[in-house]
Amino acid sequence: MAILPTGDYPRVYGDSQFNSSPCSQEPIRPSSSFTGDWKTTAPASYHGTYKTLTVARADIDSAQTLNARMHMVPYVPESGFYKIYMMVPGCQNTNTCLQRSTARLELSTVRKRVVVVTVPQNNNADEEIPVYTGYMPSSTPEFSMSISVGLDVNGTVDPQATSVELVVDYFRLERVTSYTNLNGVIGFAGDLTSPSQMDGPIYQPLSATLPVNSIVYSVTSGMTNDTHPTDTLYLGGRFSSQEPGFYNIAQYRNSKLMPLSNTGIWGTVNSMTFVNSSLYIGGSFNATADQAVTLSNIAQFSTTDQTWRPLSNGVDGTVTSIVPYSPFGPNVVAITGSFQTLKAGPGSGDEVVTAHGLAMWDTAFNQWTYTPYIKGTPSLLFSDLWQNRDNNVALVAGPLSAVAALRAEGTLLLDSNQNIQPLGVLGSSLRPEDSGTMVVNTGLWYAKNNGTTPQLIVGGRFKTHDGSTNVAKLSDGRWHKLLDGVSGEVLTISNAANLLFIGGVANVTESSSGQGGSNFGGLVMYNMDSHSSVGIQQLKGPDGGSSTVRVNKVAIRADTSMVVVGGKFSTAGGMLSCPYVCTLDINENQWSPMASSTLVDQVTDMLFSGSTLYVAGTFKNGTAPSVYLMQYSFASSSWDTVSGASALPGPVKSLTPGIGEVGVGAFYVSGTKSSDGTPYLAKYDGTSVAIADYTIGSSSIVRSILEVPRSRIPGSVIGTSSSSLNRRANSVIPSGYVLVVSGDLSLPGGQRASNAFFYDNNWAPFLSTIQDDGSPGYIGSVFFERPPTNVYQRHRLSVALVILIAIAIALGITFLIVLVGLVYIYLRNRREAAATASAASAALAATVGGAGTTKAPPNVAAFGSNGAGTSDYARLGTGAATLGAGALAMRSQRTVQGDYYANGAGVRDSWGENAFAGEPVSFDHISPKTDRLVSGQPAGLAGLAVVGRKAAMSSDTYVHYDDRKGDGKHLAGNDLNDSLDSIFESAAAEADAEVEARERTASTGSMDAVVAGAAVAVGASRRQMPSPHHHDSSDSTNHSRTSMYRPDSTNPFEQRMALRESQGAFPPAGPYADGADGLGHIPMPRAHHAEAGQAAALAGVSVAAGAKVSRRRSETTSTRNTEAGLVASHSSSSSRPSAESSVNSGSSARVPIRDSLRQYPVFYAKFTFSSRETGELGFRAGERVFVIDQSDEIWWMGIVDHGSDQPLEQGVFPATYVSGDPPKSTDWAELV
Known about the structure:
This protein is mainly β.
């Protein structure tokens, strides 16, 4: 803006003589020119002259009139908004009111735009008529606004006038207020010299304005990151709008004012900045306008998802300014205001952080970060980051008394990019102890071995946010407690394998109540694996207590279990004398003294160079001068002098190994001169000590020295060329390395530093520190990550682990014993089963044959090869065999099929000589398709009750004989190959049937077989199978039968069978089916054809072999037809799947399958399972089980059907007790 004196407005006159004086300093003078017949008029009643154009009325629209124009160019001193006035002299001055018409003005206010205005001139008196208000750029040689005046051919002319007159005196430009409807916001172009201002104003209001009385405190802009990215203007302050509805903050997009999410902020917005697609605002507010999001004076608005987020939990006072802080990078914003603390929250640790009106927020990690150190409360922040320059600056203003670039809180990190940054997240940093002191003396990167990730551990005088004192570890960016009980200042930290040695100033106190206090005896051994302290005997002072103990150094002897402890103490454990230095075995936790030395004061430092230990301290031998450095040989257990050490001018403070000369054992010696306390520097090169040139102020305190490669040092500090630090020939520092000297240093030239680089007596200051009160600070030590020292460590198992191993061994032995016992029981039961089978066979034979009695089965009929019913026993001849007890000769009763058997003469089925030793039993007349014995065929059966694993028996068909009706009764059945009953029941039933058959034969006088005493003659020709009788208690009147089982027997088999007999009739031996021959089928051993007749000796009786009888290789056609008739409706078990579907297995069941069970898969019991609890399903070996649930791997649920007249049984059973495959022939022995 410019304030112009009254009357001093830009003007341009029609009469050019008035446009400017000869001594005018205007760079561009006003000018006027004309075309046409313009005359100068000077009325006596007018204060000046003006130009007049007069034309005939008839020539108003002629070309000559149209071209008659006055061109005027005023001088515009500066761009802005102006009001243009046209001076029109009154018509009464010249009595030409009838001739006056209308002037036509063409105003070129800006480039490329012309404004046309018509001005009536029929005013009687002189008058300045306003013709235009708008923006005009300042006059330049390139452009200046102009006015062209001509006669308006469409203007009104009095009808009586014969001519028309146009007058021009001057135009005046008056600077006016730019806009009247800004309402707090104006757009302004930053480049004031831009030619674009010739095209229009460089500032203008928004197309949509805020409500009346709105106050805008902050404006910022940025590119949004939502679904429609655009450059958006954000307005913040105190204003509100019911429509479209925003409070104290709004966004201006696409020429429209729109609300932000949640309709804005409930409170005043004082400052805003835009960083990485997010808007950060500060002010005095506590929530969003709709109260949906709680805020505390500072907030973030994400343009990506259009949501508000708090910054941690905010600050406790009003925020006045928030700007990007470029010195900390593009992602950090600085915040100032009247707040004192940052509220606790994510990213700010567990406690409230003191801020004193200044805070920094890291937008990349969404957490508070360290700030510059400013003693005082800043009132203003400014950043020029918006200019996007390489070297942006940030300005902080206010009542400040001390400043530093970074608040460090005791630790700093020089990262791989040579940037200095604090360690730990703000809020979890190290804190001063209760006395206000905070010192970090030492630290190390702990690593158990080369393969583990190092962890930073520091020690000194401080506390952490979680209550630890004097020692802490850095984990996940936060300082945490390492262990409790370190109440004294920590001076040294070393590690050997997984052990950490923490030494320092002892602090042993007791509280007045006898509880609490502290018990830090100067040294702690801590196990990093078990996270616990290892008990060691404490060091003691001369008075026998620990209060004066001080451990300055713990040195690790490589590849051994020894560590050396040096400091100020007299004994270890109060008993072992080892003044100032002592060794500790980490495996035995045992202290050992070194050879007697001449130490008279504490050991200040130690280091191993190879196997030699160098010790810094005060050694005094009588009246000889003090020596401050000696070496100790563990090989000879003796102390020795160090060459050149006698030249050291004073006590040694620190020993630092040299890393630039490998294998020579070099190290640096730093101390203070006894004469004036000035620091000195020396180096031991492996042979002798040499004093180095070392110019430093006497008030300097050197706390540590470290040799580092020059490549690790920022080039901005020591330069990139070697000329900045030229190496002299006699330099103690090897080429390519520098010394990092830390402490409180007074350098040449009056410079003060806490850390500097030294090379050939040249100094390069690096860091300067101050304390919280503004006094100078210092750096205690600098250390890099180094490989851990290899040590010998014996690992002992914990007592708990030893107990667990002992228990495991005991359990293993117990398991082996149990396993051996189970194997033994299994083998014993197997032998007993074989013995039981033999006993049962013998008992059965005795029951059938008696003792010395000759009987014939009642149902055995004699017949010949021609079917005439003659006996074949007379024709045995040499083909007969003498059988002992336990053998039985049988023949099937002939019915109507005599012709069928006519072709089978002279052929028999037989067992081999080793049948009872495991050889399969052989039969003739076995169907090749079904492997069954054809009904009506002769058969020889010996040892029916054979049991055991070596007996090969088959279970294909069963027969039931009902002697109450006197003929064969065939029970309805489906498949003859499924669901075996107990072999015990089958054997007993068949034995009963044989006894009854003998009795019937004896009563009718018909005998075809001779069973006498211990011998039975068996024919070699066809033998028909008898049908076993199933006993019923109702038949006891018809049959007299003595049991062959004794209830008091010790044999389990006899006990079970006797119990079954005492309960009445045996249940059916299995499923029955009618055959074409009118008889059922008994389960038989799986047969194989023998080439010749054989005779077997049973129960120890010798066997005489008869003449071989030719056997038939193939069956006759009638035999095959008969067999086909027998099995026509049944499926072969050999073709059945392993787990039958009930839907398809209806023909294979013992009894017809009920419709409700056909949907379930069928399994067969491999073993008998006796239910012991409610809900369990019991069954016998061989029974059929319908499984309805297999979801569990151990217990299944199933159903057993005992017959249509019996209820279904349902329950759970072990899944391993059943199989999807029906039992095979070899399974019979298992079932027994």
